Amino acid sequence: MFEYCADPASLAGFKWLSCYLTTGKHMGLYWAVGTVLLLLAITAPAALLFGFGGAAAARSHFRPLSWFGKGYIAIVRGVPDIAFFLFFVIALDQGFEWIRHQIKCPDWDQPIRQGNDFIVCAAAKLPLSSSPQVYHEIYGFFLAVLTFALVFGAFAANVLYGAMRAVPHAQIETAEAYGMSHRQAFWRIMVPQMWVYALPGLSNLWMVLIKATPLLFLLGVEDIVYWARELGGMKTPQFTDYPHADWRVWYFLALLVFYLAFTHVSEIVLARISRRLSHGQATLAGEKQRKGPRGRGKAAA
Amino acid sequence: MSCWDTIADYALRSQGIGERLLPRTDFTLCQQFTLIGSGMIWNIYFGVLALVSGFMLATGVAVAKAHHQFWVRKPAEWFIFVFRGSPLFIQFFFAYFLFQSLKAGYPFFGAFTAAWLGALLVLFLNTAAYSAEIFYGALMSVPKGDVEAADAYGMSGWPRFRRVIWPTMLRLAWPAYTNEAIFLFHATTLVFFSGFPASQQRGDALYYASYFADKTFNPFIPYPILAFYFILLTLTVIGLFGMVNKRLNQHLPKERRAKIRLRVNLIR
Known about the structure:
Distance between the termini of chain A: 55 Å
Order of helices and strands of chain B: HHHHHHHHH
Helix content of chain B: 55-70%
Strand content of chain A: under 5%
Oligomer: heterodimer
Distance between the termini of chain B: 42 Å
Mean pLDDT of chain B: 88
Number of helices of chain A: 11
Number of strands of chain B: 0
Shape of chain A: flat
Number of domains of chain A: 1
CATH architecture of chain A: Orthogonal Bundle
Mean pLDDT of chain A: 80
CATH topology of chain A: MetI-like fold
Strand content of chain B: under 5%
Radius of gyration of chain B: 22 Å
Shape of chain B: globular
Strand order of the largest sheet of chain A: 1-2
Largest sheet of chain B: none
CATH architecture of chain B: Orthogonal Bundle
CATH class of chain B: Mainly Alpha
Largest interface: A-B, 46 and 44 residues
Order of helices and strands of chain A: HHHHEEHHHHHHH
Low-confidence stretches of chain A: 295-301
CATH superfamily of chain B: MetI-like
Number of domains of chain B: 1
CATH class of chain A: Mainly Alpha
């Protein structure tokens, strides 16, 4: 990156490190941090949406829909989530290809599952085998996001389901007394009030989501774990201008610190949001704020 | 080849006993059930040992975190922060490469690069941190009256902790601790997917499940089998912990007893 990096033999000490940390491959690592943040930025709202759908379905009066919602919530517990990640990525991929296969190649007569192979016609491949590498990567990332959203959606659904039940029932009864329909009461009364109750669970979920991002590595996305393994491995002068011994332990230490800092900052921000939300609420936290410094002074003593 | 032969060949495959080659073609349901079940031995091994050892450290760390002296409290707080604030997955990777580089200087660390010891150590420290936070929370909510009553009986120091504070703390923490145990068992599936290699294809349940999914390109059989085993394991854990919970609560009137409720917590 810097001009003085042109001749690696002349470098030493700090200068060497500055060149080393700005090689093209390291830029890949920094991009991967961006990937993780992008995943979080997309997954969090998507999971919330899935969760909201799941919770609303579980509360539905229409039996099959409520079974579906409850099943969605229940099935992700009891089983290690990493198994779900590994499962969904293959299952979703095959599902998409199967649907496209049904649409695009109706006159295909061979079975799709032949022994150990899953074969769809060439036009149904996702992405098409002729498309450039970028599309393959984007598709992989998209599958990862969908998987994360599905799994975390179930957990968000669980939290939101609990939050909906925590809204005092009198509120709904009042809405009904005003002549609101079931749907109106849900959207106008329950949904605006449930967030205070959902916040502790959702912030816990956010922390868990941050800590789940390294699992991207298992889904075949070139994330920070991938780059840390790649870059930290033994480098000899034969293959690179910046030879070094096995440094993976340092790279993973850096990742550890990155995640610690990330969760710590999130913790502070979430505490602030929670303080803001419980302001003026008839809960213990709200009461504590109302009483102000006296309560705090007591806690300090 | 009948199913009994398969069981005889592969039931202890994850420990390196029995047939050396994994099945390569014509995968039967029986083979998948047997091998994934055989992998469960590792999950139970990691889970049980980490829980038992982690329990003791967790008690110590929780007491240390509640201590009034700065230099006792801070290390405990940092220990909990580091292990709860970072992903277990990264902890495994870091530990593996750390042991690997230590091995070069001190041959003593050779054993730690193998999963049975290295990953166990990480899981032990990790569950100790999570449990310590639970125990700390429970310790803080031990009723004041109980401690005052102990004081009135002339108890102090160790006898007071051993006979009054500790049992109450356990009783209060138990429902949350049950969840911690369940998710620890789930976390054991990460071991062979992080740095730690599975030597001679002796892996855990997920290792074999993903082996079958890769070979058959059909995730709809091995993963549900894995799910079946884990739900069974979860129910067993809930049953066992429920028995302990009953004993811890036996002196209380019925309506005040703490019930175990499964709460979401998932990945570390």
